[in-house]
Amino acid sequence: MGKKNNSTSTKAKKVARQRRAATNRPPVSPAPLMAAEDPWADLGVEDEDDYNAAWDDITATYPTLLNALEGAQAGEVVELPGHDDGYSLRQLVRTDDGKVVFRETLAPDSDVRSLVATVLLNHPGNQARTEAALTAFLLEKIPSGVPRGQVEVVRLPGADDALFPQLGYQYEADVQHLQRWDELGPALEAFDPLILECLDSSGMEVVTETFAELRARGLRAVQCELCQEPLTDGHPDWSGVWVSLGDLGGPSCEQNLLRGAGGVYSIMVPGPHRFAQN
Ligand SMILES: [Zn+2]
Fold first, then answer.
1. How far is the CA of 224 from the centre of ligand 1 (A)?
2. What's the CA-to-centroid distance between 177 and ligand 1, angstroms?
């Protein structure tokens, strides 16, 4: 699955919204002015120009984390640059009890997303039970060391393609005692393994055993024996036909090339996926 490429306009609107909100804010107490510093720089995954530009915009609006926390306390939604726009949402938000927390919503790596989406599509009449089983599965995959009690599995309404339901992780951390942007990274360090797992497919590999694990939980998890892709018969455009999520034109298994009867075709055509019904 590809990245969305329309992040610039979305970000520009976001920043304009934050600037408008900031001008309506009462003056804040003097705070130490720090140079813009990406709290997640140590992860080595944030090297895109628009990501850095987004940080420049944030620190232009909120020179310090204290300023941003005060903004959030005043009811502003402060959105921080995510590692991949649309798949990671980082915010400072005021909760119902009046506390300001850092909240990150993360989509798992694309292989896991495809697997989860196909399983959800394969249970059209039983979404609540299916989501509960997938939630248990995803919670079990949280890397060790991450404070599990602070992580939950949520639906991702805006992630990827809205045609497919998506589940992801969300965690909240208390950051109210911090003042400077460079304090944010160390305060959230315990969650770095979860972020890395979501970014890197080697973190949580989707292999044949993963499908078996889901089937043991009573879920219809179907893998093509040839191309290894997760399959669904509940694709919105191909209901009743077993396809992978990328098969926009119908079943298209790259590992099952049809040669054509009697040499009629001059090119080889991707054929249906192959799997054992269970
Ligand atoms: Zn296949």
1. 5
2. 52
How far away, in angstroms, is 129 Cα from ligand 1 center? 28
Burial class (CB in 10 A: 0-12, 13-18, 19+), 238: middle
Phi, psi of 104 (to 5 degrees): -120, 130
**Cα 195 to ligand 1 centre (Å):** 30
What integer pLDDT is reported at residue 194 of this predicted model? 92
Ligand 1 geometric centre to CA of 246 (Å) = 11
Q: Which two tokens stand for residue 116?
A: 């989860």
Greater confidence (223 vs 8) lies with: 223
Which DSSP string corresponds to 108-130?
A: PPHHHHHHHHHHHHT-TT-HHHH
Note the pLDDT of residue 162: 60
Q: How far is the CA of 241 from the centre of ligand 1 (A)?
A: 13
Tell whether the model's pLDDT for residue 85 goes beyond 60.
no
E strand segments, 57-98: 78-80, 88-94
Give me the residues paired with residue 257 across strands: 270
Which tens digits make up the pLDDT trace of 2-17?
Answer: 333 444 444 444 444 5
